[in-house]
From TrEMBL:
Key word 4Fe-4S present: yes
Classification via InterPro entries: 2Fe-2S_ferredoxin-like_sf, 2Fe-2S_ferredoxin-type, 4Fe4S_Fe-S-bd, 4Fe4S_Fe_S_CS, Mopterin_OxRdtase_4Fe-4S_dom, MopterinOxRdtase_cofactor_BS, NADH_UbQ_OxRdtase_ferredoxin, PSI_iron-sulfur_center
Keywords for this protein: 4Fe-4S, Iron, Iron-sulfur, Metal-binding
Domain of life according to the entry: Bacteria
4Fe-4S ferredoxin-type domain span: 142-162, 187-216
SMART domains membership: Molybdop_Fe4S4
The 4Fe-4S Mo/W bis-MGD-type domain, residue ranges: 230-285
The 2Fe-2S ferredoxin-type domain, residue ranges: 11-89
Protein name: 2Fe-2S iron-sulfur cluster-binding protein
Length: 285
């Protein structure tokens, strides 16, 4: 007989969220509280399988009594806390951050960013062409995935996923300082010569498409990538006995990429090279 340890129930904390009383478990963040009541908060650097990086500053909210705005993805709720997510101060901050990101970075493949900008009236073009960052060339040095750092917002999610939070390969890190800061392999070596094991977990957490499947990149280049035509089927990887969950993304009867459910108790969204990239034989014609 197996005894499952369920632990003690967490104490509920009550706070006021945009004028409404909300109760969430102790230890939850403001973002968790917003999600629990169906309130959408824009965020780019937050990942549900990673520790908050507090890098993008898009999810900032106003907390009564706080001198500055606070990041909702990492700020824990407190009893009696009064939070405003749509105040004039919050909207102005969100607008400015999105404008700065949009003027300096290619956000064309970032999900939801257009609706976020529309909601807060952001206009990145108002800074003029001089504000644009010089585009970096797309790096294709392996047959599995592409690095397009012109879309990188330096959220550190790929570094965390490759480092001590998941893979422990430490193949990539932040190089340079200030305006020269960038994601790079050790000594900027080509990816095949680095410590990369091609698990693709960095692709899984990238919020802007700076890292993408080679197949996805090619289809975007030739104009045939269409997510509205794609179906998703979750199955079990057959390469070994671990039992990792795979979600197959299929377009025109062809697998175009593979992800893994973040809520899976086995993978938590992570895979190895075989699970994420070893599907070409399925459609080898």
């Amino acid at each position: 007989m197996t005894i499952v340890e369920i632990g003690l129930p967490k104490r509920l904390v009550e706070l006021t969220l945009d004028g409404e009383s909300v109760r969430v478990p102790e230890g939850a963040t403001i973002l968790d509280a917003c999600t629990s009541v169906g309130k959408s908060i824009p965020t780019l650097c937050y990942g549900d399988t990673l520790e908050p990086a507090n890098a993008c500053r898009v999810c900032m909210v106003e907390v009564e009594g706080s001198r500055t705005l606070v990041p909702s993805c990492s700020r824990k709720v407190e009893p009696g806390m009064v939070v405003r997510t749509e105040s004039e101060r919050t909207q102005h901050s969100r607008k400015l951050v999105l404008e700065l990101l949009g003027s300096a970075t290619d956000l064309s493949t970032t999900p939801h960013v257009d609706e976020w900008m529309s909601a807060c009236g952001a206009d990145p073009s108002r800074f003029g062409p001089d504000a644009e960052t010089k585009l970096q060339p797309t790096t294709v040095d392996n047959p599995l995935y592409v690095r397009d750092y012109g879309k990188c917002i330096m959220c550190y999610k790929c570094v965390d996923a490759c480092g001590d939070q998941w893979q422990n390969s430490f193949a990539i890190s932040v190089a340079g300082r200030g305006f020269d800061a960038r994601i790079s392999t050790e000594f900027a070596t080509p990816l095949p010569e680095s410590a990369c094991v091609y698990c693709g977990n960095c692709i899984e957490v990238c919020p802007t498409g700076a890292l993408s499947f080679k197949r996805e990149h090619d289809k975007r280049q030739d104009g045939t990538w269409d997510e509205s035509k794609q179906s998703q089927t979750t199955t079990i990887c057959t390469f070994c006995g671990v039992g990792c969950n795979l979600t197959l993304h299929v377009q025109d009867n062809e697998i175009v990429k593979v992800t893994s459910p973040h809520e899976s108790a086995v993978t938590h969204g992570n895979l190895c090279i075989k699970g994420r990239f070893g599907w070409q034989h399925v459609q080898n014609r």
